[in-house]
Specification:
The protein is an alpha/beta fold. The chain has 6 helices and 8 strands; from the N terminus they run E-H-H-E-E-H-E-E-E-H-E-H-H-E.
Length: about 190
Amino acid sequence: MRVVYEYSHLGGKEILQGRFPEQLADIHEVISLVQARRTKRSREKTMRGRMLYAPTDMNRQFRDHFRDRDYHEVRDHYAIELPDSDTLITGAYKQIDFVKDQVLVEVQFGKYAFMFYDMAKFQYFFNENKAQVGVEIVPSHALAREMSSGVSYGEQLVYDIERLRRHFPAVPVYVILIAPDGDEAALPTP
């Protein structure tokens, strides 16, 4: 895979460059090692029989490569209590896929709501002083078009973050859009 676009929100990339250069190098190395393979035959009406990139295969590769570099999953458990309510819900948690030295990394090949929820999780861990920066690795539009329907793309996430300005997320985030090697011309980075 390769990076086709980068977006630095509230200095996310600059924080990585200055405070966490090893993690920044890890992230780019892992992206370069992941291979997009068309291993999923579509059963969807609009793409029946077409070979698509498989999110499960790419997720597995990301997991293996990040774990090889000592990144681990983190879960913060808590109970939910609502004001003026007797309800108590135990066992709730927030989870991040890959963490190393207060750098949170999520790889998201799901629906758009999950990309945006990752921003909320970054905000949560930042507010709890358990993170300094979040990194969101997402498919570019060109890659998402070659995956199952329902997979979102990073251009939409960047568009929305830009319009929310500094209000949300109020945490430094580095968004990285990826595509298979050779499939798409690189886009300019702002």
